Amino acid sequence: MILPINIYSDDVLRRKARPLKGVDAEIVELVESMFESMRNASGIGLAAPQVGHSLRLLVLDVSCVSKYEDEKPMVVINPHILAVRGSSEMEEGCLSVPGVQGDVVRPSFIMLKYRDEHFEERIGEFSGMVARVIQHEIDHLDGTLFVDRLEKRDRRKIQKELSALASGVVNAAYPVVVREVVPTSKTS
Ligand code: ZN
After folding, report:
1. What separation in Å is there between the alpha carbon of 35 and the centre of ligand 1?
2. Contact present, 185 and 140 (Cβ < 8 Å)
3. What residues does the ion ligand 1 have nearby, CB within 5 Å?
C-alpha cells in the first residue's frame, strides 16, 4: 500500500522514535508499504516517521544509483552507530522536504549494529552511498532533518522554500500529508 509522506513541518518528523520490540505481521506489512511508497516516490531511503510511525525502522534501496546496482534492499531496525571514520560532502534531498537540496558533510564510513527484517542482530560496515543514506535515515529517527545540518549560508538560500513547505504549500509527485494550516484569526 502506498502511504502518504509526512512533510517538513509535521510534528512526527521532530520526535525521537521508539525502538521496536520485535517484528510482527503489522511491522512486516509496514515494511512492505514503506518500500512501495519509497519506490513510488523515486526515493532511495525512507524512515518510519516519514509515513507517520514513530518507530526506529528504516528501509533503503540504492540499486537504482549507478555503481550501486548490486546493492540489495535493506531493512534496518533499532540502529546504533558503533564507529565512524572519514568525512565527505554530498548533495542530499529528502522525500519529506520536496524541492530542496543541499550539501551535507557526514562521516564516509560507519560501523552499524542493527536488527534486520527477521529481528536478527547484525553488525555491518558501510561506506559510500549506503553509509550516507543510513545516516540520513537514522537522523529521521532522532527528529533531525538534513536541512538542520546545512551550513548557515546554504540554509539561508532555501529559507523561502522551507517557509512555503511549513505553510502547507507542497509540490510533490507522490502522495503527501499536508498539515492543515492553523488560521491565525482569533474569531471562530
Ligand atoms: Zn529524509
Report:
1. 14
2. no
3. 94
Which residue segment(s) compose the domain that 134 sits in? 5-177
At 74 the pLDDT is 98
187 assigned to some structural domain: no
The total domain count for the chain is 1
Full-prediction pTM beyond 0.90?
Answer: yes
Buried b (16+ CB within 10 A) or exposed e, 29-53: ebbebbbebbbebebbbbbbbbbeb
The answer to whether residue 51 is domain-embedded is yes
The three three-digit cell numbers of residue 121, written as one number: 542482530
> Could you tell me the CA-to-CA distances from 9 to 35, 175, 186 in Å, in that order?
23, 16, 22
| Contact yes or no for 55/16 (Cβ under 8 A) | no
